[in-house]
C-alpha cells in the first residue's frame, strides 16, 4: 500500500507543479530581458534571479509537504466513490469491517482516479497567483532606475593628517618631541602644518646644509637662527613659521592644550537625594576621564550628625580604583549605610576630585557636592528646628498633634452625626486655642506679639486704665503694637518666607476651627506641617572650607622689629585707567592711512593680539596680517586694522565736537536770528 500511496503523491505533486511553473517562468522573463538589454544591471539581475530560484525551490518544497499531509482529504472531496475512507489506504486495518472496506477501496482506486481527477484537484488547491510576476517587475524597474542615475565618483583619498613629509637635503625639517607624559611618540617631518600637544619641544634643523645658515621667522615676531645644533623652541601657544628670504610659504603649528579631567557623578542623579526611612543601602556611581592619564582620583565624603549648634562633621577620603585604561576611572558600588556610618537624621556630602599626570602644572577637577539625606524621627516640637531654642510651655502642642486631634474630631462627627452642637464647638475651640498658641510661638520670630482673639497670655494690667469700649482700649486689648518685622529677626529672607507661609496656613486652620469646620481646617494644617518640616530640613548647611590661610612667617624675622620689604596696608587711590593703550589707538589711526606707521608698531600689535584674542585660529590670522603689513603689503593694513579694532571691545565712547568756521555770513545770520 505504501508504494501505491507514494506513486499517488508523486503524481499529485507533478500535476500541481505543472500548474505553478508558468507563474514562475513569467516572473523570470522580465529579469532575463533586463539583463540582456541593459548590461549595467546584470549584477543586480543576477542577484534577483538567484533570489527567484531560491523562492521557486522553496515553493516546490512547500507544496510537497502539503501534499504529504492533506492528500487524503483532497481525494475524499474530489472522488465521492471513495466514501470518505481514503485514510484506510495508508493504515493497517485491524477489524474485519475495516479490512473489507480497504479491499473495496483498492479495487476502486485504479478505475476511479484518472488524469482528469488529478488536474481537477490541482485547479482546486493550487490557484493562480500574480505575486511572483509583480515582484519581478518591481525589481526590474528598480534596477533600471538605479542604472539611469549617474554613478558618483569616489572622492580622492584624504591626505593623512599625521603622515610625515619626506626630508630633503638642504631644506628645513622639524624634529618634534612631545612631553613624555602625553604618550605621543617623537617624530621628524618636512616643512608642513602639524598638530602637537602643549609644551612640545620643536627643533628646526637642516640636513646637509649648503650655503648660508637659514633663519626661521615665527608668528610672534621672534627669529630663530638655525645653526649646527638646530633652533629649539618650547611651544605653548599656536603659531606659524616660515623660512626667511627663501619662501613666502607659512606653516602652522597648532597646539592642543592639556585639558583638565572631566569628573561626574552618575548615581544618584539628584543633588539632594532623600533616602527612604527603611533604606539599608545606596548606589553611588562615579567616573573620571582625562585626555592623557589620571594619576589620582578620590571620593571625598563628609558625614554630618546632630542638630542645632551640636553638629559634628567627619571627613573620609576613598581612592577610586584604577582601571586598564589610564585615561579613565569608573567606580560603581552599592554602599551599605553601615559602611557610610549613616544613622537616621544624618546627612552625607560627597564629591569626586581627580588630578591628571601633567608634571609641572597638574590640573585638578572637582564635581559638584551631592547630598544623601536619611530622614530621622519626626520632631514633635520646635526644639529640633533651626529656630532659636526657647522654653517650651507644658500645654503647648505640636502641629502634628493638632492634626491628629482635628482628624479625630472629623471621624467622631462622621460616626456620630447627632453630636451636640455645644460639644462640637467646645472641642473645635480647644483645638483652635492650641493652634493659636503654636502660631504665636512661631510668630515671635517675625516680631508678632499679640493674638487676634486676645489670649490671656497677652493681658496686661494697663488694659483696665482706659475707658471700657473706647477705641484705644479695644486696640490695646486686641492689637498691641508690633515690632518691625524685618528688624525683629535675624533670619535670612528664605527662612522668613517659610515662616510666613507656616503662619498663614495656621491662620487659615484657626479660622476654620473657630467656625466649627474641622474638615476644612485639615488642608491648611498640613501646609503648616510641610513648612515646619522644610525649616527642620534647612537647619544644616554644608559649605566647603574656604578660610584664608596666611603665609608662614619667617622665624628669623620674628621679634626683630625689621620691617624692610613690608608693604603698607594702605593703598593709594589710583586714577581712572584707560582700557585702550595709547600705542594701539595711534596704530589703528595710522593704519587707516598710507603713511608711515609708528615706531615699534609690530610689537604693540602682537602684544594686543596675544592679550585680547583667545581663539587660536583668529590669533593665527591676526598674526599673519601683522607679518603681511610688515612685509610691505599696503592693502593688508585694512585687515590688520579690523583685527585691532575687534580687540577693543571695552573701549569707552568718546564724544568729539565738530569744528565750525566762524565766517562773516554766519555772523550776519546769527545777528538776524537774535533780532527776531
Sum up the overall morphology in one term: extended
| Mean pLDDT over the residues | 75
User: In percent, how helical is the residue content?
Assistant: 40-55%
Termini Cα gap: 140 Å
Q: Give the class from helix and strand content and strand pairing.
A: alpha+beta
Which segments are poorly predicted (pLDDT under 50) over 5 or more consecutive residues?
Answer: 150-161, 379-395, 450-466
Radius of gyration: 48 Å
How would you sum up this structure, described in words?
Helices cover 41% and strands 17% of the residues. Strands 11, 13, 14, 16, 17 and 18 form a 6-stranded mixed β-sheet that branches. The chain has a 5-stranded mixed β-sheet with strand order 3-9-8-5-6, covered by helices on one side. 18% of the residues are buried. The chain has 676 residues and is an alpha+beta fold. Helix 1 crosses helix 4, helix 7 (399-415) packs antiparallel against helix 8 and helix 7 (399-415) packs antiparallel against helix 11. The protein has 16 helices and 18 strands. The termini are far apart. Strand 16 (347-356) and strand 17 (364-366) form a beta hairpin.
